[in-house]
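Quick one, probably user error.
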């Protein structure tokens, strides 16, 4: 039976409970606003349930497998991997996700955010109709902060009104290719690859961006034969060209067949896999058979059924909702804001960028002065083996913007800790010529995701090489290679000419 709950009013309505949505809700509630968060699935969104967190858990397992191989082959440790217990791996992954999910729910409850479970459709600039399966007020939620009439476990139709702001945070879905219908077994997207049955013996990955590279790396660590196909002339095409080159070298050294500048001609489903033809960069036709084809060709914003037109909103030709004011992430309709994957570039479609966007919007709605998100200073990471991490401009971008630049690179194996790891890698810094501002830092190698924070501060604070060179890096560490590059750019290098 449909229950008409009437009009329920709150300060802020957030549609979508992923990283952008729940960060907006938490910050807004902490500033004294009453908030309703509408989510049709589970709070945490793609990142928590189908992306960042479960995939990184699995990549950690892959690191352990690789470490055992390195221990045996390089260090004389007589260890072997008999097999991978897929069920145990999945159980650990799912436990990590479940604990994080409970944590997000607890934070929302403690903040007094009322979570309405259901599908939202805009009915006006700041009005929303929700077809709900009930509200989700976790234990400890302060019900006095909830809108009048919105009670726990009341399924039906809820008409909600926002006094101050409506925030759109509906996220994205994987793009697919014509003629490739995912079935969750032979053809999978990045969303369902985590939940496909077992470990395949062979995988064809379409898409050489961060997601495709990570899945290619994971499956190779688990023993699969992997072919990685990217239509652009290099993998991770948004990164610096030297990052792409070193990453390609590292993946090929591990036995991954990287085919850049290639495209899928056709694919045929078999009983136990896929048969495909790929046109290579050389114009040759490569015939491949794999147990699994993983489509990782990007993500599309989710706006279907959202009723944007009722609020006077439109999308661009790619489906993004474009803010009129990037400093407030506010659309042309006053009081309607956008965060996360609905935003077009320069937003990055990264979970940590959406956290910053959520903070910005919540503080703006609360009347605070909040700095705009500096997307150039947001780090980008690919969690493959080897990893990549970067922040700021690539060399090509810097030159295209008219900068005269000084560039310095240093292999990680030039420092003692890099020799210990023995897995290659490089540090590259792009700075304005003559000792000017650092424009970009680019890393490839083991654990560089944990090394990028320093570089983020360097780029974000407009530092110069001489500013960095006076700070001493610990020895022996991989990060001292970063320090050495800045010493060299400042004219004080010890280990480079």
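Nope, works fine. Designed sequence:
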């Amino acid at each position: 039976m449909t229950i008409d709950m009437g009009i329920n009013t709150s300060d802020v309505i957030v549609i979508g409970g992923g990283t952008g949505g729940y960060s907006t809700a938490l910050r807004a509630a902490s500033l004294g606003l009453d908030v309703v968060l509408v989510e049709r699935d589970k709070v945490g969104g793609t990142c928590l349930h189908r992306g960042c967190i479960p995939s990184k858990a699995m990549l950690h397992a892959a690191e352990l497998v690789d470490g055992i191989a390195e221990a045996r082959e390089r260090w004389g440790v007589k260890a072997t991997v008999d097999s991978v217990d897929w069920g145990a791996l999945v159980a650990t992954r799912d436990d990590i996700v479940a604990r994080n999910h409970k944590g997000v729910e607890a934070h929302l409850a403690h903040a007094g955010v009322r979570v309405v479970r259901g599908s939202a459709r805009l009915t006006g600039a700041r009005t929303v109709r929700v077809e709900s399966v009930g509200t989700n007020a976790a234990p400890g939620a302060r019900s006095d902060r909830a809108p009048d009439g919105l009670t726990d476990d009341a399924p039906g139709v809820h008409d909600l009104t926002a006094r101050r702001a409506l925030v759109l945070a509906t996220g994205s879905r994987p793009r697919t290719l014509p003629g490739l219908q995912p079935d969750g077994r032979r053809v999978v997207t990045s969303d369902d690859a985590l939940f496909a049955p077992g470990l395949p013996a062979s995988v064809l990955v379409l898409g050489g961006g961060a997601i495709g590279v990570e899945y290619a790396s994971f499956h190779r660590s688990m023993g699969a034969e992997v072919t990685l196909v990217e239509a652009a002339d290099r993998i991770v095409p948004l990164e610096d060209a030297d990052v792409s080159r070193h990453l390609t070298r590292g993946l090929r050294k591990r036995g991954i067949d990287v085919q850049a500048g290639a495209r899928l001609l056709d694919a045929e489903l078999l009983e136990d896999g896929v048969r495909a033809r790929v046109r290579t960069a050389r114009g040759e036709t490569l015939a491949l058979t794999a147990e699994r084809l993983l489509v990782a060709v990007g993500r599309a914003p989710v706006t279907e059924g959202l009723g944007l037109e009722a609020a006077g909103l439109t999308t661009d030709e790619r489906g993004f909702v474009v803010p009129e004011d990037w400093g407030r992430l506010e659309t042309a309709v006053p009081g309607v804001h956008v965060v996360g994957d609905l935003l077009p570039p320069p937003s990055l479609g990264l979970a940590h960028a959406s956290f910053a966007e959520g903070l910005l919007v919540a503080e703006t709605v609360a009347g605070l002065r909040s700095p705009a998100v500096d997307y150039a200073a947001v780090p980008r990471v690919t969690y493959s083996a080897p990893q990549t991490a970067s922040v700021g401009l690539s060399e090509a971008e810097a030159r295209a913007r008219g900068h005269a630049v000084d560039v310095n690179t240093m292999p990680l194996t030039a420092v003692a800790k890099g020799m210990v790891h023995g897995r290659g890698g490089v540090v590259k810094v792009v700075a304005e010529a003559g000792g000017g501002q650092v424009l970009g830092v680019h890393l490839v190698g083991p654990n560089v995701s944990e090394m990028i924070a320093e570089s983020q501060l360097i780029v974000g604070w407009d530092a110069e090489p001489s500013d960095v060179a006076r700070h001493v890096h610990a020895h022996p560490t991989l990060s001292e290679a970063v320090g050495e590059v800045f010493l060299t750019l400042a004219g004080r290098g010890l280990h480079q000419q």
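The first helix runs from residue 19 to 30.
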